[in-house]
Amino acid sequence: MLAETNTAGIILVALGALAFALSIVAFVLRNRARGKKAEVPNALRPGPADAALETPLLNRLQGWGVVLMTFFVIWFPLQWLFEPSRNLSQENELRVLAEQRGAQAVLPYSADNQLGVGCTRCHGNELKGGVIPYTDPTTGAPGYGYPPNLTTICAGILDPAGAHPTIVSVEDIYQVIQEGRGDMPSWSIRFAGALDDQQINDIVTYLISISSQVVSNDINICTNTDAQAKALALAEKNQVVTEKP
């Protein structure tokens, strides 16, 4: 047992001596590899130069600048080229919606048609005018009205039937509805009426739509600029004639 203890002690001493010797060798080799220069901790070593740090960042910024510039150079012309068609498409969509609202507005008000204004009560179920019986709201006396045919409103003063002798342009249609004329009362809230500008615009848009299906293009003052000029010239001529003795 004493022999075994001595053997273990000798082995431990030998291993310790070997480890000490290896440590000395490693230390010597490490110093020899580093040479004679003083060892400086990493925290105290000089960092990269400003140029080395800023150049990659500057390159990235310049690269993104070129990418963005290329994007806008392509994007702006495309927007400019397709903008008219988009505007026209949106305008058509708005006109269709206005026509739909206008078609409801000319009908009488009801629980199912809360947009109804009731143009058909005076101008007939088909807005073709004619002889319309009515009751005077002031006296209660019965009477007859002779409202014009709204389906030919876009013929204006050029209408062969002479139903619209004072209509020269679309502005005149708006004015008649807004301010009233003859037996027709004003409908705009700006003239003690009941309709706002949007409602009147919807009604006029609808009237132009249905009238343009009946009135030929050569006398359509709502859509044809030549017909507008002809109507204006005729109106001026008639005014000059009426002013002569």
Helix coverage percent of residues? 55-70%
Distance between the termini: 157 Å
Mean pLDDT across every amino acid position: 83
User: Could you give the order of the helices and strands?
Assistant: HHHEEHHH
How many DSSP-defined strands? 2
Largest sheet: 2 strands, antiparallel
Number of helices: 6
Strand adjacency order, main sheet:
1-2
**CA-based shape:** rod-shaped
Which quaternary structure do these chains form?
single chain
Low-confidence stretches: 240-245
Strand content: under 5%
Radius of gyration: 47 Å
The class by helix and strand makeup works out as: mainly alpha
Task: Give a concise summary.
The chain is mainly alpha-helical. It is built from 6 helices and 2 strands; from the N terminus they run αααββααα.
Q: What report would you give on this structure?
A:
With 245 residues, the protein is mainly α. It has a domain at 120-243. Helix content is 56%, strand content 3%. It has helices at 2-34, 50-105, 120-123, 170-179, 197-212, 225-243; strands spanning 132-135, 142-145. A two-stranded antiparallel ribbon has the order 1-2. β1 and β2 (142-145) form a beta hairpin. The chain is rod-shaped, with a radius of gyration of 47 Å. The termini are far apart.
